[in-house]
């Protein structure tokens, strides 16, 4: 094996991050003493400031939550669109450790699977539309394919419906913003040590320290490892660190410097093939029935390594009288490097000869982004009308370099040798499984991930380089006419230029587009609102900046942006003295010039498709009583392909891929005593299709979770989470062809949560 691939190994070892977390735990006594001393000094000037943040019994605090976006010129109650905020308390109660875990609590969101050209990473679908390229961190686009952690996340915000006016390109179904943990005005030292089944080990430290009277330092550290429960092979190993410091906590001008590093080394899951491969159309469209722990991957060949580094400078200046200027500069770099097994590639070996071809999908990509964003917010009066204004500009540059691996033996023409392809005509698994196939083929039942791999793995060195430049400007205004009526208007202009260079030539797309948002709000009482809103989105070719599922290609580089619009009627209510928030909305989202292929896969595309989703959403969040809290909702999505591709007319009126008709989530907890709390969750979803033909699908499911926590003393709380309580065998991702991803089985985790 060449030096270029020397790092292709079997199970990775214990991550460095666990060692760093152990160091953090070792420093607890000294840090706690320092924190208490500084807190005492700080509190002499402010008797209202608590000394520390204590970890009480785990429950939602008696308050409604709001979005942190400066583009929202009103509270969520008075914002005319659907927004869901997942607070820190829910992240902690449910035992969430990733963005995928967090978004599971929001109905109407599913997850798409990756491959090689479509990268393996976070790919949420909101209201039926791919939102992989519409994920933001502190309001700035998070570029590159990643599997995101939440150890440094305070809350997760989901904007639903076309929202390019807020976020720019894409955002057809909505967008996701992750709010990071920033320095605060009190000393605290919190953390957690988690141990569980499936070799689960996790340690976190969250230390906030005042420096003098007007500055603070915060440090978050993570170490994590676990096997994927009842999956027979996949695992996760990662570590990270996120320091930040703020100067001028109480001053008119403040500066926050922050850095984020996350590094992972994992054994990726391979999934289960669908039962109707291309050469067996009579078969069932759902995945074949095999035991839950069936894993077709190879320890000796498969791996996934990711690294994410983000540096941020945030400058705020208050001019007084509600006027605030924010300038954010972000430089980020993400890498995604993997080889993983995609089972059988629709070849049908498991039908003909009892084997599954271990096709490899691979990718080597790195993405950098440099973004500068300026926001100005404030209030003013024109006659009797109060205005809440938000304006801003953004300049960004994103660069992606993409390569692949050559796995196995190739002929002089650069093509795989016949015995190393999945084609039954060329042999494939008809040669047998195991050694006789060079371990390219595994038996359908009881495959061995410890099979050796002796084939070569070398870099292809066939680079594609994508550069994307964006220039944007926006303005939003909420006009309050009186206590009952307000009008929200917003517009954004984007200049989007993307260029791709490869050995085959250079292609580019230059798009200029406007996006709009408008909403009328009526408040029958101070704690309730009824709204009617309209919003648009624009989705140009190359929206993924080279590292996603919606890339620039010779088949689409000369096309116009796809245009989407959303009409929504909704109502929001804050009940029980703002302890409980209830929301409801009915909506219609239409994409009027969707990109569709003129022929089969890979054929030229045209702006000729039309897609529609009609839906209903219900949501609730907060405290029903002082002891009882809830978080969840229900979403109904009636999706239709009104105008499919010319070569796919049979799909007319079919359901969207990755779009369940019904989805329901509910998390609730109850404090039996001030020390003892119990909780549980139910997550249900109806049948999901993987393709527009609706011939590949995964069954609906209902999953249950459970939680119990006990406050041992003022410094220690024990929390037990059981995920997938009934050990439900279900699929959480449906790819357009070939396979579906299997969700983890039952696992139990005991967390020792501490606070000083």
TrEMBL record:
Q: Where in the cell is it found?
A: Cell outer membrane
| Keyword field contains Cytoplasm | no
Q: Which organism is it from?
A: Dyella tabacisoli
Pinpoint motif TonB C-terminal box by residue range.
739-756
Q: Which residues form the TonB-dependent receptor-like beta-barrel domain?
A: 256-725
**Which InterPro entries does the protein's record reference?**
Beta-barrel_TonB, Beta-barrel_TonB_sf, Plug_dom, Plug_dom_sf, TonB-dep_rcpt-like, TonB_rcpt_CS
Family in the record: Belongs to the TonB-dependent receptor family.
A Gene Ontology molecular function term of the record: siderophore uptake transmembrane transporter activity
Q: Name one GO cellular component term.
A: cell outer membrane
Q: What is this protein called?
A: TonB-dependent receptor
Provide the membrane topology annotation: Multi-pass membrane protein
Q: Does the keyword Transmembrane apply?
A: yes
Reading the lineage from the top rank, the first entry is Bacteria
User: Where would one find the signal peptide in this protein?
Assistant: 1-34
Q: Name one GO biological process term.
A: siderophore transport
Q: Which residue ranges does the record assign to the TonB-dependent receptor plug domain?
A: 76-174
């Amino acid at each position: 094996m060449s030096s270029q691939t020397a790092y292709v190994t079997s199970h990775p070892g214990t991550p460095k991050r666990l060692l760093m977390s152990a160091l953090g735990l070792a420093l607890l006594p000294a840090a706690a003493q320092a924190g208490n001393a500084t807190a005492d000094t700080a509190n002499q000037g402010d008797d209202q400031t608590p000394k520390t943040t204590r970890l009480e019994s785990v429950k939602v605090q008696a308050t409604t939550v709001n979005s942190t976006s400066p583009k929202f010129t009103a509270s969520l109650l008075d914002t005319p669109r659907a927004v869901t905020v997942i607070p820190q308390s829910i992240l902690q109660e449910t035992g969430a450790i990733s963005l995928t875990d967090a978004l599971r609590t929001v109905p109407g969101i599913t997850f798409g699977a990756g491959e090689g050209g479509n990268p393996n990473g976070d790919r949420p679908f909101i209201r039926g539309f791919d939102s992989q390229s519409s994920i933001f961190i502190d309001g700035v686009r998070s570029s590159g394919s990643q599997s995101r952690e939440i150890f440094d996340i305070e809350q997760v915000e989901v904007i639903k419906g076309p929202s390019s006016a807020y976020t720019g390109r894409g955002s057809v179904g909505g967008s996701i913003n992750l709010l990071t943990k920033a320095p605060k005005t009190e000393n605290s030292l919190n953390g957690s040590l988690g141990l569980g089944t499936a070799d689960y080990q996790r340690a976190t430290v969250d230390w906030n320290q005042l420096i003098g009277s007007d500055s603070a330092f915060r440090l978050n550290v993570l170490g994590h490892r676990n096997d994927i429960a009842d999956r027979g092979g996949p695992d996760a190993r990662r570590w990270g660190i996120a320091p930040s410091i703020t100067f001028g906590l109480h001053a008119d001008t403040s500066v926050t410097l922050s850095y984020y590093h996350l590094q992972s080394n994992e054994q990726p899951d391979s999934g289960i093939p669908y039962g109707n491969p291309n050469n067996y159309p009579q078969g069932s469209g759902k995945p074949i029935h095999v035991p839950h722990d069936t894993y077709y991957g190879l320890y000796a060949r498969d791996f996934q390594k990711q690294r994410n580094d983000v540096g941020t400078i945030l400058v705020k200046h208050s001019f007084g009288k509600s006027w605030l200027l924010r300038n954010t500069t972000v430089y980020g770099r993400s890498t995604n490097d993997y080889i993983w097994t995609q089972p059988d590639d629709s070849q049908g070996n498991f039908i003909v000869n009892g084997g599954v071809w271990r096709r490899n999908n691979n990718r080597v990509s790195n993405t950098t982004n440099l973004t500068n964003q300026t926001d100005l917010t404030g209030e003013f009066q024109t006659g009797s009308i109060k205005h809440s204004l938000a304006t801003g500009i953004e300049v960004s540059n994103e660069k992606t370099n993409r390569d692949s691996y050559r796995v196995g033996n190739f002929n002089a023409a650069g093509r795989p040798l016949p015995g190393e392809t999945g084609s039954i005509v060329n042999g494939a698994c008809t040669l047998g499984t195991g050694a006789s196939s060079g371990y390219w083929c595994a038996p359908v039942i009881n495959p061995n991930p410890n099979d050796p791999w002796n084939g070569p793995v070398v870099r292809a060195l066939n680079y594609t380089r994508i550069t994307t430049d964006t220039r944007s400007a926006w303005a939003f205004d909420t006009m309050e006419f009186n206590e009952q009526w307000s009008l929200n208007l917003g517009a954004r202009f984007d200049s989007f230029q993307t260029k791709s260079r490869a050995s085959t030539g250079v292609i580019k797309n230059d798009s200029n587009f406007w996006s709009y948002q408008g909403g009328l709000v009526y408040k029958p009482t101070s704690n309730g609102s009824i709204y009617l809103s309209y919003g648009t989105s624009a989705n140009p070719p190359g929206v993924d900046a080279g590292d996603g599922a919606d890339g620039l290609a010779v088949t689409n580089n000369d096309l116009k942006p796809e245009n989407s619009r959303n009409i929504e009627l909704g109502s929001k209510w804050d009940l029980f003295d703002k302890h409980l928030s209830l929301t409801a909305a009915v909506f219609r989202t239409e994409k009027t010039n969707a990109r569709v292929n003129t022929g089969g896969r890979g054929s030229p595309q045209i702006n000729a498709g039309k897609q529609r989703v009609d839906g209903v959403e219900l949501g609730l969040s907060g405290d029903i009583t002082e002891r009882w809290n809830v978080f969840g909702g229900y979403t109904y999505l009636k999706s239709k392909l009104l105008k499919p591709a010319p070569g796919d007319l049979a799909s007319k009126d079919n359901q969207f891929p990755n779009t369940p008709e019904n989805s329901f989530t509910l998390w609730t907890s109850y404090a039996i005593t001030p020390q003892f709390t119990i909780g549980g969750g139910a997550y249900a979803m109806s049948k999901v299709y993987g393709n527009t033909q609706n011939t590949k699908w995964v069954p609906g499911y209902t999953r249950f979770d459970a939680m119990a926590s006990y406050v041992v003393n003022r410094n220690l709380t024990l929390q037990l989470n059981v995920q997938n309580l009934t050990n439900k065998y279900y699929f959480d991702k449906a790819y357009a062809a070939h396979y579906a991803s299997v969700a983890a089985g039952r696992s139990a985790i005991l967390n020792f949560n501490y606070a000083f």
